[in-house]
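Lab meeting, item 3. Inverse folding demo.
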């Protein structure tokens, strides 16, 4: 039987209420519908022709359409109908629209009971309810059923992360692929409100994007006939990804997504968003990831060099606020990979010139990326006169340069000069013995000073003791600083640097004037 004959309970009682919804017509009875539908009651009261006239209403704007009204009318007539996860949201929206709220709760109460006991109790059911809300906007948002569904999904995800009920444990990520980008964004927001771990957000976002964009990623921008559809889909997915602060996504995934976005001609806003996301996690990216971005759609030649340049520029600008980000960029290349550090010294000098307000400790941290042993003679000479460098760096440059110069006959038996202007010295048994004698003399001088201080402390009073001890301590501290590489970030191994003339000079002078001995 068609719908026109389903609502006639008796041929003796003709229909006096006609409801039109698009192409569907429902012949009903005012005596049945008016008591349970506030909307119809008001419309009948405002109609002309008296109580016996037939009233015709157009309810094409009803959320859920003819299917939702069919079940609502069955409820009014007391007929059987089924509430499921696919129609529960539509029935609730229709009940609110028709004002079906009698004293016993009406249709809305029955739907609410179903959602509480069945519809929102499991993850797949909650996903189905939220998906059904996508065709009921904005009413589904206004009455709160869409948000309640998203909250239920977030709760079930958090429970699954803590106490998995299926295998594999991340089975829930595939369930989210049925949602539209707008609904997925509601779930991500609900997860953030529940303070879900960043790993959960990353797993949800990457799985959702890969499943939803499987066709786009597989085509890699070659399907021209679907480029417009793919472009809209990529833009909508990128727009709802979690922020970098909440959950930084993997660099490899973002690079692949950016490659597809550039290939299919996505909007500049979408591409910029992905570029900034990659810049935030650039330390995770490999050369292959950046090459993926640079290649053209066919993957045969490098084309998107400007895109890679913008990513690196964004990374530098992002980290430029702190000295640690420069240090991190310079440390990406091992020190031993550079034959000379002159270029690195110039970069350090430019950075210090651009950031004159850095404190001494911060400047020392910046200078720690270079090795004074690998500076050329000209580089050490410039560094020794550079007022922007921290004091420890200047002392390092002076000390090493003086050791180089004091090797005197660098072109003789003692050594020569390498391709970078660094002195190359050869040690001998005689030189090592000379250094050993100097160290022994310095130890003797320190022992005598300690004995002198001890005697002064015994012969003087408390005030005298403190004064002499303080002077002795200051002298010892000054003496210990003669070697600026005893500790700190500029500590270097100087065992291979031998001063040939040092032994000869100190053999004719008093031991206390031996300022460049290495202990």
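The presenter then showed the designed sequence:
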């Amino acid at each position: 039987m068609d719908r026109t004959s389903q609502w006639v309970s008796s041929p003796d009682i003709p229909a006096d209420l006609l409801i039109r919804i698009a192409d569907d017509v429902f012949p009903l009875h005012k005596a049945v519908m008016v008591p349970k539908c506030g909307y119809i009651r008001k419309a009948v009261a405002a109609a002309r022709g008296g109580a016996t006239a037939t009233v015709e209403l157009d309810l094409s704007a009803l959320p859920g359409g003819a299917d939702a009204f069919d079940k609502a009318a069955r409820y009014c007539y007391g007929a059987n109908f089924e509430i499921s996860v696919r129609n529960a949201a539509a029935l609730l929206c229709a009940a609110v629209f028709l004002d079906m709220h009698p004293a016993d709760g009406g249709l809305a109460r029955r739907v609410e009971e179903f959602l509480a006991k069945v519809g929102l109790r499991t993850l797949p059911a909650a996903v189905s309810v939220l998906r059904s809300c996508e065709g009921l906007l904005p009413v589904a948002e206004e009455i709160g059923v869409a948000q309640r569904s998203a909250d239920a999904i977030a709760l079930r995800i958090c429970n699954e992360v803590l106490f998995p009920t299926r295998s594999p444990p991340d089975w829930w990520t595939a369930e989210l692929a049925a949602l539209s980008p707008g609904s997925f964004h509601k779930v991500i927001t609900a997860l953030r409100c529940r303070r879900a771990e960043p790993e959960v957000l990353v797993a949800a976002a990457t799985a959702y994007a890969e499943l939803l964009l499987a066709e786009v990623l597989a085509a890699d921008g070659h399907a021209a006939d679907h480029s417009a559809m793919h472009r809209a889909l990529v833009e909508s997915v990128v727009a709802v990804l979690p922020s970098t602060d909440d959950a930084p996504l993997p660099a490899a995934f973002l690079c692949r997504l950016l490659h597809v976005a550039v290939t299919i001609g996505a909007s500049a806003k979408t591409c910029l968003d992905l570029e900034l996301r990659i810049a935030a996690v650039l330390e995770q990216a490999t050369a292959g990831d950046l090459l993926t971005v640079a290649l053209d759609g066919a993957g045969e030649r490098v084309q998107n060099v400007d895109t890679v340049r913008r990513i690196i520029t964004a990374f530098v600008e992002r980290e430029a606020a702190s000295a640690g980000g420069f240090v991190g960029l310079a440390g990406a290349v091992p020190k031993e990979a550079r034959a000379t550090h002159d270029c690195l010294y110039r970069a350090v000098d430019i950075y210090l010139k651009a950031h004159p307000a850095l404190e001494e400790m911060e400047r020392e941290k910046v200078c720690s990326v270079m090795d004074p042993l690998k500076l050329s003679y000209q580089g050490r000479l410039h560094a020794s006169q550079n007022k922007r460098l921290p004091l420890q760096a200047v002392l390092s440059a002076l000390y090493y340069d003086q050791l180089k110069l004091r090797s005197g006959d660098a072109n003789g038996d003692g050594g020569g000069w390498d391709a970078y202007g660094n002195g190359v010295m050869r040690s001998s048994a005689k030189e090592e013995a000379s250094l050993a004698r100097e160290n022994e003399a310095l130890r003797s001088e320190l022992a005598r000073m300690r004995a002198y201080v001890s005697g002064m402390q015994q012969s003087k009073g408390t005030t005298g003791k403190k004064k002499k001890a303080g002077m002795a301590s200051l002298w010892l501290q000054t003496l210990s600083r003669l070697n600026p590489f005893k500790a700190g970030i500029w500590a270097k191994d100087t065992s291979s640097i031998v001063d040939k003339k040092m032994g000869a000079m100190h053999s004719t002078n008093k031991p206390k004037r031996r300022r460049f001995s290495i202990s």
